[in-house]
Amino acid sequence: MANDLTNVSSRIVTKGLSDPVSSPETSLEGKNLPDASRAESERSLLPPPSDTAMGEYYQLQQTLLVCTLAFSGVVFLFAWGFYSLNLALNYLIGACTGVVYLRMLAKNVGELGRTRQKLGSARLALFIGLIVLATQWNQLEIMPIFLGFLTYKFALIAYTIWTAVLLE
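^ thats the sequence. predicted structure below, dont judge the formating
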């Protein structure tokens, strides 16, 4: 850790700053550093991920994915049984998009701090494209698609409640 701080301060000194200790550009957070230097200094300050932490993270990803798929299947069957196949298929389109969104989110969060410094917005484009498609195509209904997309959020809430109850 001290070696990393020395490397950061030596990089700042080589960029032409006379006093790295009193200069505001040398803050540990790198708030006033140029973007490339800030990203490099933040990346160098992060400890390497441990195998157990990443294993737990991958297990959480898998559990949330399975929970989302289970909720989607149950709601699809109920929608088909109580309403119509068309409405159930609309829900399923939204639920599948929600699963893809969840996978993209999990991948981006896994890379956060290692290869990325912030989350991207490509996932939002997926949702916007789905809603635009639903508004333009007459056979699709917006509300079941939207609720299907939100299924992953219900799975997150259920998982959180389940783990809170199990820990007690």
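The CA atoms of residues 157 and 163 lie 10 Å apart.
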